[in-house]
Amino acid sequence: MATEQSPLLRDIRNDDFIEPQDMRDGRFGKIPLGLIAILILIIGFVLFVVFVPHNTPHPIEPWPTDLTPNIFSHLKALNEIAKHSNKNSRSITNGYNASAEYIISTLINKTNCDVKLQYFKVPIWEKEKEAELSVSFGNPDEIVAFQGGIDFWSMRDGGQAASLVSQEVVKIQNPLDNKTEWNVQGKVALIQFGNFSVWDAAYKAEQNKASAVIFYNSPGQTKLSRVRVRIAEWKEGDPLMNIPVLAASNSLGRILKISSSINITTYTKVFVTETFNVICHLNDHGHKKNTIVLGAHLDSVSAGPGMVDNASGAATLLEILLTLEKQLFEPKNRLVFAWWGAEEIGLGGSRHFVRELLKSKEKENIAMYLNFDMLGSPNYIPFILQGSDAPPDARDGSIRIQHMLEKVFDKLREPYDISDMLGGSDFLPFIQNSIPSGGIYTGSSEIKSRKSQQKFGGIANAPLDPCYHQACDILDNVSEDAIELTSKAALEVIINFGSMKDLRDYLESRDI
Ligand SMILES: [Zn+2]
Question: Hey, which CATH number is domain 127-270, 3.30.920.30, 3.30.413.10, 3.40.640.10, 3.50.30.30?
Answer without folding.
Answer: 3.50.30.30
